[in-house]
Design a protein that fits this description.
single chain; 45% strand; 6-stranded antiparallel β-barrel
Amino acid sequence: MECKIVKKIFKIVAQRGNGAFTNFNTEVPKAAQKFLVRIDEIKNSSGTEISIFEPKIDKNHLEGIYYVGVVVNQTITEIPPGMDYIELSQVYVTTRGNINNIGSLHNQLLKWTDNKGYKRKLDDYIVETYHPLANGEEEVEIYLPIHT
């Protein structure tokens, strides 16, 4: 697993959701499927699916918000009803791997971040982008915001 630092700008059209952090692993994919039914309404879509998540601050932080959507190629002024345009510009630590290993990827990226002495920004969104592979598998790229 390769971890690295990147400065990245994400331009996103997405739908908002919220719920218990413990349910994000089932809730977010369901929300994404509902969102994808409307993907043709979005102009300048890159086709790359994306989710962004409010970080869990501590053990008492039980509920959070998330967005499921698609990366767009340029700033959007016409946003479909019930969706938001979000632009994130941040320095991230990132890694990519098989979506079936998403928990392990997150843990390894957190460990790498700590070992390198980087401090996470807990007031910015965690980003995941999803990349289908030819064999029916899917990869996820995880971006954790850090202080610079």
